[in-house]
Specification:
With 667 residues, this protein is α+β, with helices and mostly antiparallel strands. It has 18 helices and 39 strands. The N and C termini lie far apart (76 Å). Bound molecules: adenosine-5'-diphosphate (ADP). Residues 131, 156, 162-165, 200, 202-203, 206, 208, 232, 235, 275, 277, 286-287, 438 line the site of adenosine-5'-diphosphate.
Length: 667
């Protein structure tokens, strides 16, 4: 076994690999870009080496710099994780030349499987079933069109070098064909530098079922069952599970054998995934991924094995730890990918700081693979994944229940997330009943991504009670600090002198203003909420900071996170954003153009054009932001003085962050 390995990756997968290294007594070396200097994977590793600026092509994709880091650290092997350099044959070759073990398959296997055309030829020869199609060398438009006609519509035109769904076109009729071939070729050439195309029968409503394979250097090849990854959005996996629901054991066995045959055909070593489309009892090879897959934890949960440990053992020349007949399959597992993205804005990545981050407690049923901690930023440079939430139980309904419960417990404030979307999927009756096909999310989009709803009464009630408790706590704090703690002016219940003393609290909730009137009663509060009759309420702040609230006899636990006047109420697995509409604050903001200049959207500060104290005229450019690849200039709203500058060039800013403070000159 190795003494020390370098992990050529970041985020959750780097942390995941380090955890196994630690358990095995293998020293770990992290690499990091400028943006990741204080990232979790760097903190977890035994050593860490800086490899360059934030953009991946200048750091995590620099094979030469990473190999130099391995040499400096004295690492004997490199684990590439997934993405970045994991399927890069040139990097694997460079490792070999440098005498460093690449923890992955041999170079020829990466090369063969990197081309969809080449891999299909090999699979055909190995007797692995393929989607009916054309993967010939003759690439003229006439030949491709003739092949498509022979296969029969609908067909899928694919780029041989493709990945991530790029260069793929569904063609439903002859009339669309010539144009689809031409545009797929253009996209393939510009994205992959390789215009080679193939044509497949477009399988209607298929499932995506893939086989985890493992091979050692001694000729042993096994599979560790299958994963069903049919819940996809734009060909990207969202929730995965193992085993595949409703798969007959005879089909499972044949698929496993086909996966093993595929691995043997390319002289495979290490962890790999053979992907199939499954439809009407038949299965068809689509591609092989020559690395550890994002969704590998569901396989670990049902087999009770650590696949990263297997990777290290195989790379060190050991034999596979188990023979095929001894590989267990127990219970059912799901994985959900929690992303910083906004479903209401077409799943646009949501950049910002994770002000509050509480994953559910881990245990035998719940596992959280993450690469971020509270206070970390989700930046524009990398994949906005927050965590993979993995659950296990004896059977599928029980595991799905665990997934719903764990999703409801996950607390994230600071960025928008897809948590409610994942919860809607995990709670969908059709998904609970049976396996679904790859078109499920698109067909059910309207139900799964509900339009912005007004905050329910319970959420407004919780926000109001939290506000009242805070006033109370502040008053107690003042009393404790005062020279006369018994002064009536410091009493927390000082408002309660009349029979019906009350506070009117106003919350901005999207477009509307919701008013909650809080009446003080001897044994709690009476709340007038926007709709319905008055409600009796009680609230206690627990030592953890959480609130226990009782509304009209219903007890619930909630978390309320505040950033200035911004309030996020976390209740029942959903995050609701409100703004306390404080009249004093509003007056101050409206006063004579004085106030805050805020970021219109999340982005990066490109340049700061003024210093604090600068006297400027109306329209003077103050700061330039870059967001969504466009520049936005922040200008002076009036003649006046910049009283503070809160960010520097290169900083990430979240939406509505205060960029500069400004004071308008007297008219
Ligand atoms: P990429 O390498 O770009 O990810 P894949 O070949 O792995 O492309 O396909 C990605 C997804 O596209 C599959 O999981 C499936 O949902 C869909 N897909 C691929 N081939 C077909 C096909 N022949 N018929 C229907 N859907 C397909």
């Amino acid at each position: 076994m190795f003494d020390k390995i370098l992990i050529a990756n970041r985020g959750e997968i780097a942390c995941r690999v380090i955890r196994t290294c630690r358990r095995m007594g293998v020293r770990s070396v992290a690499v990091f870009s400028d943006a990741d200097a204080s990232a979790m994977h760097v903190a977890m590793a035994d050593e860490a080496i800086h490899i360059g600026p934030a953009p991946a092509r200048e750091s995590y994709l620099r094979g030469d710099v990473i190999l130099e880091a391995a040499r400096r650290a004295g690492a004997q092997a490199v684990h590439p994780g997934y993405g970045f350099l994991s399927e890069n044959a040139a990097f694997a070759r460079a490792c070999e030349a440098a005498g460093v073990v690449f923890i992955g398959p041999p170079v020829p296997a990466i090369e063969a499987m990197g081309s969809k055309v080449e891999s299909k030829r090999l699979m055909e020869a190995a007797g692995v079933p393929l989607v009916p199609g054309y993967h010939g060398a003759e690439q003229s438009s006439e030949a491709l069109c003739a092949a498509a006609r022979k296969i029969g519509f609908p067909v899928l035109v694919k780029a041989s070098a493709g990945g991530g769904g790029k260069g793929m076109r569904v063609v439903r009729a002859e009339s669309e064909l010539a144009e689809a071939v031409a545009s797929a070729r253009r996209e393939a050439e510009s994205s992959f530098g390789d215009g080679m195309l193939l044509i497949e029968k477009y399988v209607d409503q298929p499932r995506h079922v893939e086989i985890q394979v493992f091979a050692d250097r001694h000729g042993n090849v096994v599979h560790l069952w299958e994963r069903d990854c049919s819940l996809q959005r734009r060909h990207q996996k969202v929730i995965e599970e193992a085993p595949a629901p409703g798969l007959e054991d005879s089909v499972r066995a044949r698929m496993g054998e086909a996966g093993v045959a595929a691995a043997r055909a390319v002289g495979y070593v290490g962890a790999g995934t053979v992907e199939f489309l499954y439809s009407a009892g038949g299965f068809y090879f689509i591609e092989m991924n020559t690395r550890l897959q994002v969704e590998h934890p569901v396989t670990e949960m049902i087999t009770g094995r650590d696949l990263v440990e297997w990777q290290l053992r195989v790379a060190a020349g050991e034999r596979l730890p188990l023979a095929q007949a001894d590989i267990p399959r127990r219970g059912h597992a799901f994985e959900a990918r929690l992303y910083a993205e906004d479903p209401a804005r077409d799943f646009m990545p949501s950049i910002g700081t994770l002000h509050h981050l509480r994953p559910p407690a881990e245990g035998p049923h719940v596992r959280v693979d993450t690469g971020v901690r509270e206070g970390d930023a989700v930046s524009i440079h990398y994949d906005p994944m927050i965590a993979k939430l993995i659950v296990w139980d004896e059977d599928r309904p029980a595991a799905l229940r665990r997934l719903r419960a764990a999703l409801a417990e996950y607390e994230v404030v600071g960025v928008a997330t897809n948590a409610a979307f994942l919860a809607a999927l995990a709670g969908h009756p059709d998904f609970a009943k049976d396996a679904v096909d790859t078109g499920f999310i698109e067909r059910h989009r309207a139900e799964l991504v509900p339009a912005n709803q007004p905050a329910p009464a319970a959420v407004l009630g919780v926000a109001a009670l939290d506000t009242i408790l805070r006033l109370d706590e502040q008053a107690r704090g003042r009393a404790a600090a005062s020279s006369d703690p018994y002064s009536p002016w410091n009493a927390a219940d000082g408002w309660r002198m009349n029979d019906d003393n009350h506070n009117d609290l106003m919350f901005r909730d999207g477009e509307r203003i919701a008013t909650v009137v809080v009446h003080w009663r001897r044994d709690g509060w009476m709340l007038d909420l926007p709709d319905g009759p008055p409600v009796m309420a009680r609230a206690v702040r627990e030592p953890s900071g959480r609130l226990t609230v009782e509304l009209d006899g219903m007890r619930m636990a909630a978390t309320v996170v505040r950033q200035g006047f911004e309030i996020t109420v976390l209740l029942d697995g959903r995050a609701w954003k409100l703004t306390l509409d404080d009249p004093a604050a509003r007056a101050a903001e409206q006063g004579a153009g004085t106030g805050r200049l805020t970021a219109p959207m999340p982005g990066r500060v490109v340049s700061v054009l003024v210093e604090a104290g600068a006297v400027v005229t109306l329209g003077t450019p103050l700061m330039v932001l870059e967001a969504m690849k466009m520049e936005h200039t922040i200008r002076a709203p009036a003649d006046g003085t910049v009283t503070a500058v809160h960010f520097a060039a290169g900083d990430q800013v979240s939406e509505a962050a205060e960029l500069l403070a400004f004071e308008a000159a007297e008219a």
